[in-house]
Every structure is written in structure tokens, then in C-alpha cells.
Amino acid sequence: MTSAFEPVHVAGATLSNRIALAPMTRSRAGAGGIATGLVAEYYTQRASAGLIISEGIQPSVVGQGYPFTPGLHNAEQVAAWREVTDSVHAAGGRIFAQLMHSGRIGHPTLLPDGLVPVAPSAVAAQGQLFTGDGMKDFVTPHELTGAEVREAIADFAEAARNAVEAGFDGVELHGANGYLIHQFLAPGSNLRTDEWGGPVENRIRFAVEAVEAVAAAIGAERTALRVSPGNPYNDISEPDPQAAYEALVKEIDGLGLAYLHVLEYGPEAREATLALRKQFSGPFVLNPATEGPTDHRALSLIEDGVADLLAFGALFLANPDLPERLRTAGPYNTPDPTTFFGGDARGYTDYPTR
Ligand SMILES: Cc1cc2nc3c(=O)[nH]c(=O)nc-3n(C[C@H](O)[C@H](O)[C@H](O)COP(=O)(O)O)c2cc1C
């Protein structure tokens, strides 16, 4: 029986355990989307994870959906991330960059030069977002032309090259939670009638080609994808997700990716998770559906072979030494949602270790 505290091979390296820091936006980048010394401190504190997956990082200017999120699309951002990755590596950690293009989840007030958010189709998400200038309704996004779809894919590949130059051990494409890749996968946000929309084989094309482009740029063994089948977050409508995700995994399975990361939505999703796990031949990272934040009770999923690694979000945010605390089934510091997004060291780097 494999335990979560045994090593696992991912991206050409041996990770010390099977516990991953789940990607979490913390909105503490400096002006120009620059990771600061405080960001380096936050990740370095969590270097006892087998794998750190960074917060969502925009691969392009228009890919930014929230205030104070970092980028990987210019030299200054690359240099700043280098300090983070060096610090994590010096502490014995491994770190992947999560590339997150937020698509229609964003707002013109967050973007320069009169840019507006982009999406597969001109369908606004219902709801509001925090812009730094109060809560605002989502706007109707600009529908990407065929040429612009290809540019968005090329931007992922370029940002992946930048990630490697910045010292990241690999790149996870954010295909979950209603952002651009998910917007292409889901019929509610993708009304296209060209090769990027309509039947399943067209709706998965953007995800597949983005993964392939990143794999061509930095190597498949350093490329990963996160998905959240059926997750309605950010106004996603995906009534029958299983066919699309099985088709997607079928297309990317032969590439030899670093891992597939599934964020499980809802307790009834386990069967679908198991089907994807069985279908994918590489390392399988699971962020399981749980009541409240994922904790030590999830460790049995490794023992039972449901996943090769487990991703922990809120509890890892609040417990920099989470792997040690999981080993003893707690106790845990309690996450404080009022300091999740934005601000300073408070609720970021000041959670105590034991
Ligand atoms: C503050 C916060 C920020 C998040 N930001 C991201 C993100 O940038 N990318 C992503 O894929 N998921 C993001 N998530 C989702 C987490 O990765 C994770 O799926 C979620 O917290 C559920 O796991 P848990 O029960 O262990 O917290 C975020 C979650 C939280 C709490």
C-alpha cells in the first residue's frame, strides 16, 4: 500500500512526498505583475510539499482577470519569478507555474490600452467580480477570431518558455474553474460554429492544442493540465461533462505529460474521477471533493490508489508545514478568508508552524 509520505516520480524528478500545494491566487504581486520577496517567502515556507503549484499566472496582458495577480509575459516578471524558484529550490522544494488565462472572467478596468476580456463567444458570465474599484458586473467579452485563438495558444507556449527560463520545474495549464480553457470546453460559454466549437471534438480542441503547444515548447514531461469537470464556478454550464473530458484525456494521454490534475466537483463525481484516473496513464493529481477544506482524511485516496498525489488548498494556505501536520492528523491553523486575496504579510506569511 502506497502512503502519501512516499516519494513519487514527476517531471523527471523524485518528489519527496505525494502532497501538493494546490494553486491559489493570493493577489499580492507588485506593480506590473511582479512577484515580490514576500511571494518568495510564502512559497519557500511551503517547500516541504512534494510539489508546489503556483497561483494562477497570466500568460498575456489580456489574460489577467483579477487585481494584483502576477504575469509571465515579460522579462521583468521572469527575473522576479527567478528569485522565487531559486528560493524554493534552495529549500528543497519543486515548483510548477500555473498558467491561467481568465478569458471572460475579468474586467476592462483591470486592463490597459482599452483592452476588453476575450472569450470563445460574446457571452457575458452572470455575476460580479472584485476589480480593485469595487464589485462590477462581468462584461460581454470580445469573441476571439480564428487568428486570435491561435495567438492565445501561442501566448501559452511563450509563457511556458518564460516559466522554464524563470526556473520553474514545469507548467500546469489552468483548464478548470471557468477560465479561458474551460470556457472553450463548456457548451454554455462556447457557441462557436467553427472548428473550435460545437461537437465535443471541437470544444476540446483549444485545450488539446494549448497542451500540445506548451509540450512542444518545454517538453511534455514538464507540461500538465488541471480540469474540473462539471464545476459550475464562474457561470460555467456543462450539463454532460464526462464525454468531453474522456475525449480530452484520450487526446493528451499519449503525449507523456507530467501529470493530470483533477479538481473534483461534488461528492457524486467520484465515479467520473475514477474513470479519468483509469484512462490517464501518467501521474494523477487529485483535489478531492470534500466537506470543508481537504485534510488528512483524504490521505486514504493515495493508499486506495485513487490518486498518485493529492492537492491541498485552504489548509496549506494556513499551515506552511502541512505535510508534517497531515502526518499527525492535525491540529491545524484555521484559514482566514478575509486575507485570502490581496493585502500584505498578514494572512499570507504569518501563519505559524508548529
Ligand atoms: C484563496 C484561493 C485561491 C484560489 N486560486 C486558484 C487558482 O489560482 N487556480 C486554481 O486552479 N484554483 C484556485 N483555487 C482552488 C484551489 O486550488 C482548490 O481547488 C480549492 O481550494 C479546494 O481545495 P481545498 O479543499 O483543499 O481548499 C483557489 C482557492 C482558494 C481558497
From TrEMBL:
Top enzyme class: oxidoreductase
EC assignment: 1.-.-.-
Native source organism of the sequence: Streptomyces avidinii
Single GO MF annotation: oxidoreductase activity
Protein known as: N-ethylmaleimide reductase
Record keywords: Oxidoreductase
Any matching Pfam family: Oxidored_FMN
Domain NADH:flavin oxidoreductase/NADH oxidase N-terminal positions: 5-328
Disordered as annotated region, ranges: 328-354
